[in-house]
Design goal:
256 residues; single chain; alpha/beta; Udp N-acetylglucosamine O-acyltransferase, Domain 2; nine-stranded parallel sheet; UDP N-Acetylglucosamine Acyltransferase, domain 1; 4 helices; 27 strands; ten-stranded mixed sheet
């Protein structure tokens, strides 16, 4: 179902199964749209962009436009979007910036109105980014993270899985998994207990995460010594992941 006012390139790959494209939308060459997608009015999709099944893209979103990066000189780069995503009004998403690079968005995400996702970002699954959340280039947001409205995230930062960022925060360093963070710049203020309960974390599992949090942020230890203490704890998937996350950090982790 393609509205007669929509401009769809004959080179675009549009699945025959239940795809809708609304009035005055523009679908350019090299775009691939899978089954069950709903493209609203005045949407512009361009570049080497692939959109997975059952995504909904709302009015005036611009998907796959060239990176806002002065280094970009027309290289062939990609945007890959998974399945069952909701992309609301005026969202903008850019592809990668160097030849062959990609911006990658997983599945079951909600990107609210005016969200911007810059080049080379990686968004996991079941992520929520509230209105006007802004991600600079090379940002990673892991599974089940929630980003509040009007949050700005510095390039190369990571937001760990199951964390939540308060509205209007400024992210300048990595936010470790499982925490609540807020501020200018944002720092952790405890573990995300409500979110973890909603995702059926057991009390024992949450207790271990809280113990790790206290060693990292309330013990007075520096990062190196805190990591040594974490390695002495009863090891679990969560504790091992926190240690790995910190050791792989490029910008360092946020601490107050």
């Amino acid at each position: 179902m393609i509205h007669p006012t929509a401009l769809v390139s004959p080179k675009a790959q549009i699945d025959d199964s239940d795809v809708e494209i609304g009035p005055y939308s523009v679908i350019e060459d090299n775009v691939s749209i899978h089954k069950g997608c709903r493209i609203g009015p005045y949407v512009h999709i361009q570049g080497y962009t692939e959109i997975g099944a059952n995504c909904s893209i709302f009015t005036c979103a611009v998907i796959g436009s060239i990176p806002q990066d002065l280094k970009y000189k027309g290289e062939k780069t990609y945007l890959k979007i998974g399945e069952n995503n909701i992309i609301r009004e005026f969202v903008t998403i850019n592809p990668g910036t160097a030849d062959g690079e990609s911006t990658v968005i997983g599945s079951h995400n909600l990107l609210m109105a005016y969200v911007h996702i810059a080049h080379n970002c990686i968004i996991g699954n079941n992520v929520i980014i509230a209105n006007a959340g802004t991600l600079a280039g090379h940002v990673t947001v892991e599974d089940f993270a929630i980003i509040g409205g009007l949050v700005g995230i510095h390039q190369f930062c990571r937001v760990g899985r199951h964390s939540i960022i308060g509205g209007c925060s400024k992210i300048t360093k990595d936010i470790v998994p499982y925490v609540i963070a807020d501020g200018h710049p944002a720092v952790p203020h405890g573990i995300n207990k409500l979110g973890l309960k909603r995702r059926r974390f057991s009390s024992e599992r949450m207790s271990l995460i809280e113990g790790a949090y206290k060693k990292l942020f309330r013990s007075g230890l520096n990062i190196a010594d805190a990591l040594l203490e974490l390695e002495k704890m009863p090891q679990s998937e969560d504790i091992s992941y926190i240690i790995k996350f910190i050791r792989e950090s490029e910008r360092g982790i946020a601490r107050d």
